[in-house]
Amino acid sequence: xxxxxxxxxxxxxxxxxxxxxxxxxxxxxxxxxxxxxxxxxxxxxxxxxxxxxxxxxxxxxxxxxxxxxxxxxxxxxxxxxxxxxxxxxxxxxxxxxxxxxxxxxxxxxxxxxxxxxxxxxxxxxxxxxxxxxxxxxxxxxxxxxxxxxxxxxxxxxxxxxxxxxxxxxxxxxxxxxxxxxxxxxxxxxxxxxxxxxxxxxxxxxxxxxxxxxxxxxxxxxxxxxxxxxxxxxxxxxxxxxxxxxxxxxxxxxxxxxxxxxxxxxxxxxxxxxxxxxxxxxxxxxxxxxxxxxxxxxxxxxxxxxxxxxxxxxxxxxxxxxxxxxxxxxxxxxx
Length: 334
Ligand SMILES: Cc1cc2nc3c(=O)[nH]c(=O)nc-3n(C[C@H](O)[C@H](O)[C@H](O)COP(=O)(O)O)c2cc1C
Description:
InterPro entries: Aldolase_TIM (IPR013785), DUS-like_FMN-bd (IPR035587), DUS_fam (IPR001269), DusA (IPR004653), tRNA_hU_synthase_CS (IPR018517). It contains 16 helices and eight strands. By secondary structure, it is of the alpha/beta class. It has an eight-stranded parallel beta barrel, surrounded by four helices. The protein is globular. The two termini are 20 Å apart. The site of flavin mononucleotide (FMN) has 23 residues, from β2 and α10.
């Protein structure tokens, strides 16, 4: 694909619970230097009353710019969590989860069901903004079978009367009854055009699009009509796609070689040593060769790691194996 120079816009990787943990994010940062990364959702009770908040909140400076995604429904708790994120951890910004449809989150009255209460969402965002950090909200188009664009526009208009002017829109509804979270990322129809229309109707707001993006062509086609795009599953399963998009946007010349990316992880795994068992890092690397020759052999190699060994030991062994495969021309790898 020919690289085109586009001046502005954010490419980001979506918050994904259990997937975008700190090790995954560090790896993704090696692939994509210009992406904005998000934590998994962390709830305010986990920060304020949890046994070990640092487990969710600590991160490596190299992950920056990193946004902490918060979940909660209490403005006062939100303000306290936001101050902790700023003072104790140094996050670049905060994001409010108004998109998660899981039963657990609904029980806590936050996530997607907050779309019913834009005034509370505004209060929560104002509480987060009291930390002085930039804030954004990630939300859906609507709930259940709501089919009117005006409902979405009213939501955005109402939120925008507060401090938050930055909206990341997962371009499908959340169906709160009858679908599990995975189905809720597949079955409700995608409507990218509603997000594009939001940008036209609210040109002063920052509007980013998320949901169902699979390749660089789609991103390039949407890029001029929104302020940014966020990729979730496609970035996780095919991380080099992020580098392809950076290249297509004229933000980098060459694509990184998978082996160079793995080598870039060595100082990180060495610093962690025995504290980082191999599976905690390697589980995020399955897609490294996605679409490249040797993808299957790579996944087999990952499967050969022993749960008891450290990531540092396993990664070195894998680099050696890749080197010998390459010498034997078993794999045409970078
Ligand atoms: C395993 C998994 C966990 C997720 N966890 C979160 C989360 O913690 N917070 C959130 O806002 N969205 C979460 N999502 C939704 C994604 O952020 C994203 O909105 C959704 O996957 C649609 O984007 P995609 O089609 O590019 O994957 C999760 C998605 C997946 C696949």
